[in-house]
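Ticket closed. Logging final result for Pyridoxamine 5'-phosphate oxidase.
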Amino acid sequence: MTTWNEFSTAAPRIAGIFTRRHAAANNLCLLATVRRDGSPRISPLEPRFFEDELWLIGMPGTTKFRDLERDPRFCLHTATVDTEVKEGDAKLFGSVRDVRDRALHGRFATALFEETGFDLRGQEFDHFYGVDLTGASSVEVSGDHLDITIWKPGAPEYVVEKR
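Final structure:
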């Protein structure tokens, strides 16, 4: 599996688009998970970058986190509001690992409070999901065509032109 730091080195174009779109949407993304019956679920989520990793953390007891507990596979999509995709678009594919490190949780909560004022300091996290990537793609409008960039672990990212 590939962490965010490894991914951003291996696929800088996609990582750049994801990071830019993530920030432009106030950190909002759409998370796809697998329901108990095998059907997909789409949920809003604000993934966070911390200590060179991407984390999926949120309100405890939600269905999206129960989905990930049962089946760790996901797709994370930047929130797209522009139907012409002028600013680009990106998707990350992978699975999560539940990191049970209280010291890390504490550092995260302190950083979150300092950055946003949202106070989770001293609280225990039900789940603290680190992201391991298994693939990614992005779309950019380039003149009269789309540039679709694709990445899989162990290979460089590559661009496919769609006219």
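The first helix runs from residue 4 to 10. No further action required.
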